[in-house]
Write a structure and sequence with these properties.
Blueprint lengths: L4 H15 L4 H8 L11 E7 L6 E7 L5 H8 L4 H11 L5 E3 L12 H7 L5 E6 L8 E6 L7 H23 L18 H11 L4 H8 L3 H15 L4 H10 L9 E5 L1
Helix pairs in contact: 1-6, 2-6, 2-10, 7-9, 8-9, 9-10
Length: 260
């Protein structure tokens, strides 16, 4: 399945990163970091059976800040995610592309219309088959920058077992911060830095943040550098992950929705 030395290198780097994942923040840093070399995306839904839930529990994470309304629509019983799980199962549990050129079950409503309405085109899904009617794990990638190719499917098929095991560990390991009070951003960051971090979390560029806050791009850059220094991280993805771990933001990156 590996067709070049570059693909092998990307796979090995991601395997090494996957086994180091110990928390949801670490998982976020991985999928927003080197995993982009496997499947570049802006949104990811992770789903697996959850204790106390009759079906799958869906989590949204990524740089694209989906609205709660749209995420709830995706997760409802007749929503796209359940239809994608069903289509994936009928297709032999193989990677499935969803886009303008994709062809799903004719009995299903067109997926591309919904994806376009939510600004989520293109998409690709894959998972691990379970022992009952539900998959052991299921992952849906949204907002791929280019139409899905055969290489994406091959690489995803190779890495989903590692994605699944890392997601299990991320949800089993409870951060110590989960048992303490919420840390106020002002205890670490200035009010302006907290504002900038919130827009970084939403995936905005320095230019976009400058326009939103009516400040110069240089000022935004200086704020970002100060945020990285205070949070002791190297890049924006790590800053968002650290903010999540410390409960510093309103946390638009993660949404959880259990549904039968």
């Amino acid at each position: 399945m590996i067709q070049s030395r570059t693909e092998l290198d990307v796979l090995l780097v991601n395997i090494e990163a996957a086994v180091k994942v110990k928390s949801r923040a670490c998982f976020f840093s991985w999928v927003q970091g080197v995993f982009q070399g496997i499947v570049a995306h802006e949104g990811l839904v992770c789903a697996m059976p959850h204790p106390g839930a009759r079906g799958l529990c869906f989590d949204w994470l990524g740089s694209y800040p989906i609205s709660e309304e749209h995420f709830t629509e995706l997760c409802r019983g007749d929503g796209m995610l359940h239809r994608l799980v069903a289509a994936w199962t009928r297709g032999g549990c193989m990677p499935l592309a969803v886009g303008a050129a994709s062809s799903l079950d004719p009995a299903m409503e067109p997926m591309e219309t919904t994806l376009q309405r939510m600004d989520l085109t293109n998409a690709m899904v894959h998972g691990l088959a379970g022992l009952d009617e539900h998959p052991a794990g299921f992952f849906a990638f949204f907002k791929l920058p280019t139409p899905i190719c055969e290489r994406d499917a091959r690489m995803l098929e190779l890495t989903v077992p590692y994605l699944h095991s890392a997601w299990l560990r991320a949800n089993c390991e409870r951060s110590a911060s989960a048992d303490v009070h919420r840390i106020e951003a002002r205890e670490i960051l200035t009010a302006r830095e907290a504002q900038v971090l919130e827009w970084v979390e939403r995936g905005k560029s320095n230019h976009e943040i400058a326009e939103i806050l009516s400040i110069s791009r240089l000022t935004v850059k200086n704020h970002v550098q100060e945020i990285l220094r205070k949070l002791d991280v190297q890049n924006r993805a790590q800053a968002v992950a650290r903010a999540i771990a410390l409960n510093l933001t309103r946390n638009n990156v993660f949404h959880r929705h259990p549904h039968a």
